[in-house]
Write a structure and sequence with these properties.
disordered C terminus, 50% helix, mainly alpha, 18 helices
Length: 362
């Protein structure tokens, strides 16, 4: 009877996309030992076994933890079931936590984990392993969703477990501002921008970043913000400081008349030396059809992905009126926004938000 109830609660493979905390809440009436037995049952489809494993997150019975760990170690299940068990078992301050972390570190380069290597990194983050911080930061900046989302979860887990100051110190920064401006890589600076945005801090300076991805992310966040930061943007334009073209684009997106400022700056065009003339002409035509007063700094057109590719989230969108701050009610993630690349025309995902379980309080 209990197994039938599990099948009713997890009727299809769609549960693999459901957050673990939601699965755990729905499966709360199911006895924990029955969930464990469903994980072991090879006759069940692997997506249901993995869902049962994730439903154990935060509540694995101590008396069953050892056997589940051995099940993960000896390869007795498919990679996705083992990854789900790692997510459930990776809790700090449990009797087995130290041994599990040591084993996870030893698996880093093993070929059998190549398809679920992000799960190993997230598990290490949940156990407080700061040495995985840089790898998670790179994953969180990856355009591919299957890498970006675990990276984002891992960074949040590492901050939860070790504290923001410890994570920043591991990255060689003493504040989010330092990370956003002086981070050793574009990925680290992108994380600094996101952390500052989530905290309600000013990110206008990141419009001058050498990385187009970082500057474009700051542009997208500021363009959709409701708070008043236009004084700083106009000052960038007036001084012709680095990033002033991005500032013009932000102001244009906010509906301000920037034509006179653009013409005063010499009607600048950002050259794309590798873009064929027909590609540049297509960009200009697209901008003209939208009634654009000036091209975006990178000369890129902007388009949205379809709604079916969007993710409902309350992640990096903030809910206060802090300077250069947040949009009060937006909940749609722009993680799947794609922008045609300047040289090949291929889409490149530019993530500007991620799912954070603590976003409502940040």
């Amino acid at each position: 009877m209990t197994r039938e109830r599990i099948r009713d609660l997890m009727p299809s493979g769609r549960v693999r996309w459901e957050p673990s905390e939601d699965l755990a809440a729905r499966a709360a009436p199911i006895p924990l030992n029955d969930l464990v037995e469903a994980v072991y049952d090879g006759d069940e489809p692997r997506w249901r076994r993995a869902a049962c494993a994730r439903a154990l997150t935060g509540r694995v019975p101590d008396e069953r933890a050892g056997a589940l760990l051995e099940f993960v170690r000896d390869g007795g299940a498919t990679a996705d079931v083992r990854a789900a068990l790692l997510e459930a078992l990776s809790e700090p301050d449990r009797p087995y936590s130290a041994g599990l972390l040591e084993w996870l570190r030893a698996q880093e380069d093993r070929d059998e984990w190549r398809h679920v290597r992000p799960a190993l990194a997230v598990a290490r983050a949940k156990l407080g392993d700061l040495s995985v911080a840089r790898g998670l930061v790179a994953m969180a900046a990856d355009p591919w969703t299957q890498l970006r989302m675990p990276g984002e979860r891992g960074v949040d887990a590492l901050i939860d477990t070790c504290g923001l100051a410890a994570v920043l110190a591991e990255l060689g920064a003493d504040s989010t501002g330092t990370l956003a401006v002086r981070g050793a890589s574009a990925d680290e600076r992108l994380l600094g921008v996101r952390l500052r945005w989530r905290a309600g801090d000013d990110i206008v300076a990141s419009l001058a970043d050498d990385s187009r991805t970082v500057a474009r992310t700051a542009h997208d966040l500021l363009a959709d913000a409701d708070a008043d930061c236009e004084g700083a943007l106009w000052e960038l334009v007036r001084r012709r400081a680095p990033g002033h073209l991005w500032a013009l684009a932000v102001l244009h997106r906010r509906g301000r008349d920037v034509r006179s400022a653009w013409e005063a700056a010499g009607s600048p065009r950002v050259e794309l030396p590798d873009a064929p003339p027909d590609v540049r002409a297509a960009i200009v035509r697209a901008a003209t059809r939208r009634g654009s007063a000036a091209p975006t700094p990178a000369g890129w057109s902007r388009r949205r992905s379809s709604n079916r590719n969007r993710t409902r989230t309350d992640g990096w969108r903030r809910r206060s009126t802090a300077p250069c701050g947040r949009s009060p009610t937006r909940a749609w993630s722009r993680a799947n926004r794609r922008t045609p690349g300047p040289t090949t025309g291929r889409a490149t995902a530019l993530t500007t938000s991620w799912r954070s379980p603590r976003a409502a309080s940040w």
